[in-house]
Description:
alpha/beta; MYOD Basic-Helix-Loop-Helix Domain, subunit B; Aspartate Aminotransferase, domain 2; Aspartate Aminotransferase, domain 1; 13 helices; 39% helix; pyridoxal phosphate; PyrdxlP-dep_de-COase; pyridoxal phosphate binding; decarboxylase; EC 4.1.1.15
Amino acid sequence: MSKHHHHHHRDILAPAYTGRLSIDPFPALRLPDEETDPEATYRFIHDELMLDGSSRLNLATFVTTWMDPEADKLMAETFDKNMIDKDEYPATAAIESRCVSMVADLFHAPHLSTTDPASATGVSTIGSSEAVMLGGLALKWRWRAKREAAGKDTARPNLVLGSNVQVVWEKFCRYFDVEPKYLPMEKGRYVVTPEQVRDAVDENTIGAVVIVGTTYTGELEPVAEIADALDDLAASGGPDVPIHVDAASGGFVVPFLYPDLLWDFRVPRVASINVSGHKYGLTYPGIGFVVWRDPEYLPEGLVFRVNYLGGDMPTFTLNFSRPGNQVVGQYYNFLRLGRAGYKSIMETLRDTAVRVGKRVGELEYFTLITDGTDIPVVAFEMAGDPGFTVFDVSHELRARGWQVPAYTMPADAEDVAVLRIVVREGFSADLGSLLAEAIEEVCAELREKGGGHTTAQHFAH
């Protein structure tokens, strides 16, 4: 009997953890010589992944970590569909188109047909990262076309944005050769102001980015007030600068909690909006959307007409092949929840966030920066110097299984260090109480032993 057959035989007869995978060291960096049976391979990888900890206790991420079991099932059934094959998978393509329509409608895009989903101008993307790149490209191309039509120089496009933007905006500027003009924050103010935006834009500005639901604190920047300032500027002969709203985190919260707040296409200066389905759209990663006010805001030159697998297909994406199951998961949520369902979930998340914030704010150690009312995010800093830092608190919470990130604020407010809790679907009031208790205990212990760890954790947005 060959060595291989002998091994295989042993694996079949051996108790679970005495097969080859459990005994022989496994090659990590090159392909193993022999095949292994599926069950043992599954167990080997499954066990290693336990070290990731529970995604549900990760309060650092905005990304969805729980969905209905029915959604899990639908998504598992559609892993194998390639979204880009619109001809082969017409049902998936239709579902994507309906999702884009629903998002555009939620954001009050004008001129939408109630019967034709193609009347919405937008695409689904892999998260807001791709959506931001596409939104930025459309701004750059429209600016360039206007300048060329006026016989002006197009060499130095710039984009006005706060130093509080998510890192993907820095990537957009670097990858697509746009100069970023960062507006500084200051201690106690972590959003941009209308005056800052108005003073920063010039004739080379392709657009101004305004965030609805900032990464650092979850605050809403004043879209309508910024638009007013830019309207005045344009009316007095200054540059006419469009706004792109980065609603990655707030786009599926604000319409349900604050339907009267003007931040979307009801503000005429807003040209485009991106949103993450995998954040408060309540879908697993990675799904996002970018929608434009109407077709004229998406330059035709960016859209490729592809004769692909037998059909004419307009595409505007950076990614080509990708699984259809994320769009299917998003569509499931839209149908399952509707406006009423999203509203009740967002209200519940806000109430949980506010309750956790209130309990943390009552501890002598902390001052709240955001209390969970804008979007369900609570950010807080140390009150005075209790002898330990937010980094110590974060480190000790991790030892109890909770991931609560500590990080310093953006440019010109770097001396402020905060802890941030993102409340997501699946984070119950009960878990909220347990977390608040854990924070209280950790602080009491740190006070007793006089501080702890000085190193800052790496913070990924």
